[in-house]
Amino acid sequence: MNNEQAAQWMRQTAEKLVEHKDELSKLDQFVGDGDHGVNMERGFRAVVENLDDWKDLSLSQLMQKIGSALVSNVGGAAGPLYGTAFMRLGTAWTDVDQVDGPAWMSGMAKAVEGIAQRGKAQAGDGTLLDVWSPVAAILDENEPDWKKIEDAAQTGMEETESMVVKKGRGALLGEKSVGHLDPGAVSSFYLFQALAKTMDE
Ligand code: ADP
Ligand code: MG
Ligand code: MG
Q: Which of 6, 12, 146, 158 has its Cβ near the most Cβ atoms within 10 Å?
């Protein structure tokens, strides 16, 4: 992935989030406060608006910029979590021009670690980490298999439906949170679906 592809990834993600904004907010009405679609759309819109200004940045710098734009513009619980994930990609990719298999593997491992620390969460807690974590887990030294990544993200998202949510607003519902997809897991699926689409083109 180069800077231009990363920018395309952000555009594709923003497009998906706009398309699925109501669906994401609706899911968040079951397990939260109903704003996840609005939050994500606002955040990725802000990222896309800045992409032209960021086109000469290194990938590391670009990921840092995306991360801080997400922290400031997504807001809520998801902003700092998504923001941390991208900022960790940024730190992992210092001195990297072209993100290849090993860079994806180390970057995603750091991103998952960052989300887990920030959210005091682990896989199985019924959050966006249940998408990020299996995606990171299937990466190895080889160039990523984008179809497999999309599939892993989808399976991770689907599995949140049967989980008792242990972190974030959904945790207040206890057992009643079972039977609903986690909104953050669904938005993360769209993010990785957009990545797969961008990289396969
Ligand atoms: P808020 O809950 O502040 O309204 P959002 O609705 O934008 O924020 O985001 C909610 C999503 O954030 C959840 O669906 C979940 O995936 C994620 N989330 C919330 N808290 C945590 C946490 N402590 N650890 C990991 N993920 C979390
Ligand atoms: Mg919410
Ligand atoms: Mg909120």
A: 6
The full DSSP string for 67-134 is: HHHHHHHH-TTHHHHHHHHHHHHHHHTTT-SS--HHHHHHHHHHHHHHHHHHHT--TTSSSTHHHHHH
Query: How many A from CA of 62 to the centre of ligand 2?
Result: 27
Instruction: With beta carbons less than 8 A apart as the criterion, state whether 97 and 58 touch.
Output: yes
Whole-angstrom Cα distance, residue 190 to residue 85? 15
In this predicted model, what pLDDT tens digit does every residue of 78-123 receive, in sequence order?
999 999 999 999 999 998 888 999 999 999 999 999 999 999 999 9
Domain coordinates in residue numbering, the chain = 3-200
Top mutation candidate among 30, 36, 40, 133 for ligand 1, by most atoms within 8 Å of CB: 36
**Alpha-carbon distances of 1 from 101, 103, 122, 155, rounded to whole Å:** 10, 10, 28, 24
What architecture is the 3-200 domain classified under in CATH? Answer: Alpha Horseshoe (1.25)
What number is the ipTM of this complex? 0.99
Q: How far is CA 197 from CA 71, 112, 150, in A?
A: 25, 22, 9
The model's confidence at residue 56, banded by pLDDT at 50, 70 and 90, is: very high
From atom 19 of ligand 1, which residue's Cα is the shortest distance away? Answer: 168
Residues with CB under 6 Å of ligand 1 are 28, 32-33, 35-36, 39, 76-78, 81, 119-121, 127-129, 167-169, 182-185
